[in-house]
Amino acid sequence: MSWPETGQADRHDWPMLALAWLLYFSFAFTLASLFPLIGRVQAELGLSYAQVGVILAGWQLLYLAAAVPVGHLVDRFQPKWVLFGGTLIVAASQLARSFAGDFAAMLAAVAVLGLGGPVMSVGLPKIIAELFSGRHRATASGVYITGAHLGQMSALAATSVIVDHLAGGSWRLTLRYFAAGVLGVAIVWLLFAKRVDRNAQERAAGGALSGIKHVARVPGVWLIIAVGFSGFLAGHGFRSWLPELLSAKGYSPTQAGLLAAVPALCGMFGSIVILRHGSGRHRRVTAMLLLIVVGGVMLLTAITTGPPVYFAIAVEGFCAAALMPLMMNTLMEMPQIGSKYMGAAAGLYFTIGEMGGFAGPSIIGLMVGLTGSFTNGVLVLSLTMWTMLLAAARLPSPRQLP
């Protein structure tokens, strides 16, 4: 299955790419900032491991309901205002967590992120599709996702230091500092982001369901979504529990936080390098290799100690980081989708993907509660990655480099 080159002149807007990067940074920072604090939160609120797993995955539940409507919003309206509203919601989620007093309140606070999250993950690819084309589009797809990696890395590496040295040991005060930072990002976006010019042909007509119906009928879309699902399942499941997995191996909270930031650091390079060189005619082989390697090194992290762990988490970060932007870039390059239906396509992609995002942390939390070990939970995620090789082998692939 393939499609021809469109012949469209290359477009690019690097200042807007920088602003998009900043938004993704703030979202990923908010998402990951609870991971290094979860031990303190668990002790203070009296949570079980199963409850912690549900909390870590709780925002995906609301995300599932919001992604498709958000896709319609970004297809129909100015992304500047949609993304500004989404950033405010992300800040509100961070602030609400700091006031949670029990399981239900913390779950609700984290779930609010499921309203702001799809605005970022659906709206930002729409901007990339509209403002970039050709080689610039592949590069931009790899670059903007590094904001998520650096945001996650910063949260994992800095949160324990901040809570101990700047917030007097208070995880609640730490989260309030973070909420103020996200609010600052929202203001920067509002001041400097530009309107996106669209003509009538570039606006997706009809309601939200018409766009979804169009995308769902495009050949190859469901294969892309299947591969994306496995990436979300493993990414959210493995990354959200990685600090606790490392702590169970005997690392201190600070060491575990720093090591858990390594995948995000390596992912910054992996998303750019792999998208730049593997998003053209080789994307099918690239996806298959990524699935094989990521599944293997996740399992290696769970069953080994010492230097092999360092190697495994670095490779996992470098390779896993490219899966989502590789699939998104594949959607962008399909002529039946392009920039016109990118909001609907991203909404459908992330709706299904976040089902895996919810299931990943929940599976590991459940398995730890049942067996007292992380290995079995990680094994389930690895097996899922390898099963998805069947879908990756049939991914659409362009005849020419975009």
Oligomerization: single chain
Portion of residues in helices? over 70%
Distance between the termini: 16 Å
SSE series = HHHHHHHHHHHHHHHHHHHH
Count of distinct strands: 0
* Beta-strand content bin: under 5%
Overall structural class, as computed from helix and strand content, comes to mainly alpha
Radius of gyration: 20 Å
Average pLDDT? 84
Question: Which terms would index this structure?
Answer:
0% strand, disordered N terminus, 402 residues, mainly alpha, globular, 77% helix
Description:
The chain has 402 residues and is mainly alpha-helical. Helices cover 77% and strands 0% of the residues. The chain has 20 helices and no strands. Helix 14 packs across helix 16. The longest helix has 30 residues. It starts with 13 loop residues before the first helix and ends in a 10-residue tail after the last helix. The N terminus is likely disordered.
